[in-house]
Amino acid sequence: MVTKAYGAQAADKRLEPMDVVRREPGPRDVQIDILYCGVCHSDLHQVRSEWAGTLYPCVPGHEIVGHVSAVGRAVTAFKAGDTVGVGCMVDSCQHCASCAEGLEQYCETGNTLTYNSPSPDAPGHTLGGYSQRIVVDEKFVLRITHSEAQLAAAAPLLCAGITTWSPLRHWEAGPGKKVGIVGIGGLGHMGVKLARAMGAHVVAFTTSESKRRDALDLGANDVIVSRNANEMAEHAASFDFILDTVGASHDLDPYLDLLKRDGTLCLVGAPEHPHPSPGVFGLIMGRKAIAGSTIGGIAETQEMLDFCAQHGIVADVEMIPIQKIEEAYERMQRSDVRYRFVIDSATLAA
Ligand code: NAP
Ligand code: ZN
């Protein structure tokens, strides 16, 4: 069926209204009427083709929350009316070693992302959540148990939440660990909330003096304005783990200096241009590691959503009508977002 969406026809074109076609639900499909969709910096990177290989028209959006409006005959886990979410993936091979471990984000034959992945559906690639409706295999549909009033603020958990949760769990953030979160944007502000809820001692790193107070309110035990070398030096060799969410290339060496022996700096930010090469001595003197991580598997996404519902954790959001998406992108580029834009999908009908 035809559904209203917003997308771009080329890297240098503004997002505009467009009609897209969703498949009729197959036996294992869930049809979702979208209520809210978060705006991730990855949407901006991709719609502007800052990463290679964007397929046009490009309809971004992978922080989707909505209500089930129809299900295929073989669907058992969901029924019409259920509140559900869809994150960054809508399919994977389901039989490689990574999928078998519930790590579909590392599917060895390549998973199908919610937008910009090849698809048998029109127009030949997937189209994301800046739209009124989406149809997704039930295996990639998440259950949302937050209250109805929290649904807009729960949407960013589907990417910003899981992308920070997964590495925090993998590197065992928790009591007795000193954890740094670099970049207090969409991902970073969730990283602060989640690491604190896991029981870690959390330090927020920001380039924005104006976010110092906010970062404490988000749950950071301490805040460092990373442009101030003196503040950085006070924390030398003290961190177990640092999660870097910055979406622009920058010098990693100052963060390596802050790690303890055997500490890890994990990159989740995905800048258009590579970071300058780190100095070797910062790594070998202290057996330190630079690692990376991408989103999270379906089972751990459900675990994160349930944890957040139980602990009352949601994103701090600013709701926008879809017509303001270009303005939202401009503000995101200036690090002027507190801390995630969320599209009110009802405005697509306007
Ligand atoms: P965002 O809301 O724009 O936040 C990024 C934050 O980084 C900014 O708010 C700012 O925080 C800081 N920053 C920006 N430019 C900087 C610069 N030049 N130097 C230092 N700090 C800077 O973006 P987001 O949605 O959180 O996404 C962040 C990155 O993660 C993007 O590259 C995105 O594509 C990527 N991402 C990766 C995955 C994955 O699976 N690995 C998933 C989702 C997103 P301060 O003002 O506090 O400095
Ligand atoms: Zn994202």
In short:
The protein has 350 residues and is of the alpha/beta class. It has helices spanning 41-47, 97-100, 151-154, 160-170, 186-197, 212-218, 229-233, 253-256, 280-284, 298-311, 325-333, and strands spanning 2-7, 16-21, 29-38, 64-71, 83-86, 89-91, 112-113, 133-137, 142-143, 178-182, 201-206, 222-225, 239-244, 259-267, 289-292, 317-321, 340-344.
Key features of this structure:
350 residues, globular, binds zinc ion, Quinone Oxidoreductase, Chain A, domain 1, binds NADP nicotinamide-adenine-dinucleotide phosphate, six-stranded parallel beta sheet, 17 strands, Rossmann fold, seven-stranded mixed beta sheet, alpha/beta
State the major sheet: 7 strands, mixed
CATH architecture of the largest domain: Alpha-Beta Complex
Full CATH superfamily name of the largest domain: Medium-chain alcohol dehydrogenases, catalytic domain
Q: Class of the largest domain in CATH?
A: Alpha Beta
User: Helix segment count?
Assistant: 11
What portion of the residues fall into strands of 2 or more residues? 25-35%
Q: What is the alpha-carbon Rg in Å?
A: 20 Å
Distance between the termini: 19 Å
Strand tally: 17
CATH topology of the largest domain: Quinone Oxidoreductase, Chain A, domain 1
Question: Ligands bound here?
Answer: NADP nicotinamide-adenine-dinucleotide phosphate, zinc ion
Question: How would you spell out the order of helices and strands?
Answer: EEEHEEEHEEEHHEHEHEHEHEHEHEHE
- Round the mean pLDDT to the nearest integer and report it: 98
Task: List low-pLDDT spans.
Answer: none
Structural class: alpha/beta
Structural domain tally: 2
Determine the fraction of residues in helical runs and give it as a percent range: 10-25%
